[in-house]
Amino acid sequence: RVVRSAHRGPGRMLLMLRAEDGADGGAVPPFVPPPLLDSVFQALGMLDDGSAGMCLPWYVGRLVARRRISGTVIALVEREETADTGGGAVRGRALVCSQQGEVLLELDRITLKAAGRAAAVLVAGSATTPAAVGGSATAPVPAPRPDG
Prior knowledge:
This protein is α+β, with helices and mostly antiparallel strands.
């Protein structure tokens, strides 16, 4: 719904994105629309040619939002070429600009991790198990206890 066009080059992607204006008379739109941010993360995930598998946002080292984002914007997403490409992680940075070139949002040191790896880390650090993929749960489900 947000991506209008995408152009890919080696290690980078240029996106034309359309953020919701919030002109429907509802609540005040968010400063940075979540669907726009999600599109930036998905573009970074596409830049590793699928070697990390399905990735989820894990860490953003620096996020600078200079102005409220609305309307049509341009995003430049760049993958960082690192020596350690293993481990199911994709790293990069992104700039979101107005059509006039004004920088609206900067994201540095973005890290996406493979979904299976991220879920394993979350489960290892908690006493609950995640809901099944495609399912939902309203409360954490306790891990099964061994009999005996």
